Amino acid sequence: MISETPLLNVIELAKQFPLGGGILSRPKAWLKAVDDVSFPVFGGESFGLVGESGCGKTTLGRLILRLIEPSEGRIEFEGRNIFALNRTEMNAVRQQIQIIFQDPYSSLDPRMKVDNIITEPLRAVGRLSKKERRDVAAEFLAKVGLRSIDLDKYPHEFSGGQRQRIGIARALCVRPQLIVADEPVSALDVSIQAQVINLMEDLKQELNLSYVFISHDLSVVEYICDRIAVMYLGGIVELAASGDFSVSTRHPYTEALLKSVPIPDPHHKSDPFAMEGDVPNPIDPPRGCPFHPRCAYRFDQCSQAKPPLIEAAPDHLVACWLNGGKGLGKVE
Ligand code: SF4
């Protein structure tokens, strides 16, 4: 069940990276990776962040884990700004926020046995004996569909899907409240992706987890997430309940992403793709709406001013000048 209070609250968050320059000279340019982003994630909720490569979603994930510091804004976890916490306080929060990585091949140390891989976060917490840690590892290995005899094997003895299950067990063994899953199935075969997604959904129900699910694939995010934020050039352009996207998309970029999802039907004729060109250079983003150079609906106002993210319909936010700022579709 989804709680009414935010577990995580991202507030006016921005991150810029300096480019060029040196210790004594100023940067030559700034790359705006995340630009004024705000959203809550409620307890028990799966929140999706979707967009093309370079849209800022992975930087946002790293900020949530406090692997990097923001340029502006804050992130509250259970009401406390994580960027104001000292090392001891942050270590306690890190136990509550774990990550599942994209690549199950590079994210597991090939020289470590599964037992040591899974119990690594438990050793960092340091409260359990070796025997107790092994018991916890066996418990979570069973939860992800592997056997306790697998504890004494090395990563190369497993398939990609099994390795990702080991990565999930490692993230869960400290009993976190929130999992940041960064493209957790994009490196897996399509046939294995559904198994891992279904496993994550089952574990969410069983352990009352919340997810921040990062992906370039809107169809995957729609399947597992309760709400979705679509990102473009560092900012959120649309945010709504997952079921709203296919039936009442309001942003032309989301519409183009939906049209790009392949449909496994040989008789289906795909729509002409409504997006022109590539993602603009984030060092020199376009004036006005950042999507306007690629947008099939653009008009004069689009290149002059950036549309604000507003509530176009109940719980449905969009940043688009169409229909007086309410984007595509029916205006309520
Ligand atoms: Fe397209 Fe204009 Fe809407 Fe931007 S504001 S998405 S350019 S119609």
Secondary structure elements and pairings:
Elements: E1 6-19, E2 29-42, E3 46-50, H1 57-64, E4 72-77, E5 80-81, H2 87-96, E6 97-100, H3 114-125, H4 130-143, H5 160-172, E7 178-182, H6 190-207, E8 210-215, H7 218-224, E9 227-232, E10 235-241, H8 242-248, H9 252-259, E11 310-313, E12 316-318, H10 322-325
Parallel strand pairs: 3-8, 3-9, 6-7, 7-8
Antiparallel strand pairs: 1-2, 1-4, 4-5, 9-10, 10-12, 11-12
Helix pairs in contact: 3-4, 3-5, 4-5, 5-6
The structure holds iron/sulfur cluster.
Number of strands: 12
Helix content: 25-40%
What fold name goes in the CATH topology slot?
Rossmann fold
Mean pLDDT: 90
As residue ranges, the low-confidence spans are: none
Task: For the structure shown, list the relevant keywords.
332 residues; alpha/beta; Rossmann fold; eight-stranded mixed beta sheet; four-stranded antiparallel beta sheet; 10 helices; 12 strands; 30% helix; binds iron/sulfur cluster
